[in-house]
Write a structure and sequence with these properties.
Length: 107
């Protein structure tokens, strides 16, 4: 959550998802712990953060093919500890694209 991310100080976090929690009227932002304070200050994290942001924008805009390609590239190039997260986003993009491409049921 936002509060946890702020309390954690200099650790490297990336936006992961929005989640609607029971009893809340507004979705909560979830974050992915990407690395330690040294990683958070690195050029590698800056590049990752930029590419990750592009993925989140594409997914949020419903550009699932673009988001899938970005997630695949990140799964292959991000630190190994993040590969599973990006692999899950690849699957998520494929599922969302399938839903978008599915023909409407006839009545």
């Amino acid at each position: 959550s936002e509060a946890t991310r702020e309390a954690a100080g200099d650790l490297a976090f990336l936006e992961a998802d929005l989640l609607m929690l029971k009893g809340k009227s507004k979705a909560s932002q979830l974050y992915l712990l990407a690395g330690d304070p040294d990683f958070s200050r690195s050029d590698a994290f800056s590049r990752l953060e930029e590419r990750h942001g592009a993925l989140m924008v594409a997914y949020g805009a419903g550009s699932f093919g673009e988001a899938e390609a970005l997630a695949e590239a990140l799964a292959a190039s991000a630190p190994a500890r993040l590969a599973r997260f990006y692999g899950l986003y690849v699957e998520r993009c494929r599922g969302a694209a399938d839903q978008t491409d599915a023909p409407a049921a006839s009545a």
